[in-house]
Amino acid sequence: MLKRPYFIRAEWDNEAQVWVATSDDVPGLATEDSTLEGLIQKLKLLVPELLEANGLTVEKETPFEVFTRRFEIAHRAAV
Q1: pLDDT tens digit string along 16-65?
Q2: d(CA 64, CA 9)
Q3: CB count in 10 Å sphere of residue 21
Q4: Domain ranges in the chain?
Q5: I want to staple 18 with a disulfide (CB 3.0 to 4.6 A). Which of 3, 32, 47, 77 is the partner?
């Protein structure tokens, strides 16, 4: 049975043009990638490693949930 997922925030940094991931659940997590899919692939490796490095028990499968946030500006069509 899987335990509750670790929550991870991914926010788009428009200036750097990368997704940045951080988490209160995974101590020390701070990573980035130019694509969301690339970021998730990094997280699949980093999350268990960081949990283990922080002395937490790591199961065979470690569930995590990524919350994304990206701000944009919409423009009204010219009349």
Answers
A1: 999 999 999 999 999 999 999 999 999 999 999 999 999 988 888 999 99
A2: 10
A3: 26
A4: 6-69
A5: 32
| C-beta of residue 72 within 8 angstroms of C-beta of residue 53 | no
CATH superfamily ID and name for 6-69: TTHA1013-like (3.30.2390.10)
Query: Distance between alpha carbon 10 and the CA centroid of its chain, in Å?
Result: 4
Q: Which residue has the tokens 């750097």?
A: 16
The helix/strand/coil state of 46 is helix
The CA distance from 5 to 73, in Å, is 32
